[in-house]
Amino acid sequence: MSSEGGDVTALEARLADLERRVALLEGGGTHEEDPFGDRVDVWLTDPGWHPIRLMKLVRELTGIGLKEAKDIVSGTPAVLKEGVREDEAASIKAQVEELGATVELK
Questions:
Q1: Which residues pair with 81 in a beta bridge?
Q2: Cβ pair 39, 78 in contact under 8 A
Q3: 44 near 76, Cβ under 8 Å?
Q4: pLDDT digits 0-9 by tens, 23-51
Q5: Alpha-carbon distance 41 to 45, whole Å?
Q6: Residue 103: which of 91, 67, 56, 63 has the closest Cα?
Q7: Measuring CA to CA, which residue among 90, 87, 95 is closest to residue 58?
Q8: Which of 47, 50, 77, 103 pairs as cysteine with 93 (C-beta 3.0–4.6 A)?
Q9: pLDDT digits (tens, 9 = 90+) for 58-81
C-alpha cells in the first residue's frame, strides 16, 4: 500500500509541473518562470540592398503573405517577429544580416 501512496504523490507532482508549463505557454506565468529563457522582439531596422530576397526570407521566417512581407520590409523600422527565444532571435538576426539588412533585438 505504501508504494501506491508514493506513486500518487509522484503523479500529483508531475501533474502540477505540467499545469505550470501549460500556464506558461498560455501566457499565465510570470516572465521569470519562463523555462525557455528570455523572450525578445526582432526588429528590422534597415532592409539593406536586397529587399526582394529579404521579403522571401521574411515570408519563410514568419509564414505571412507577400504583401505583409513587403509592408514589413518597406516600413522599417518594423517588428519582424515578437516574443521569440533569444537563441531563435539570434538565428533570425544572422539570416537577415547575411542579406545586408540590419536587425535589433529588443
A1: 42
A2: no
A3: yes
A4: 777 765 555 555 656 899 999 999 999 99
A5: 12
A6: 91
A7: 95
A8: 103
A9: 999 999 999 999 999 999 999 999
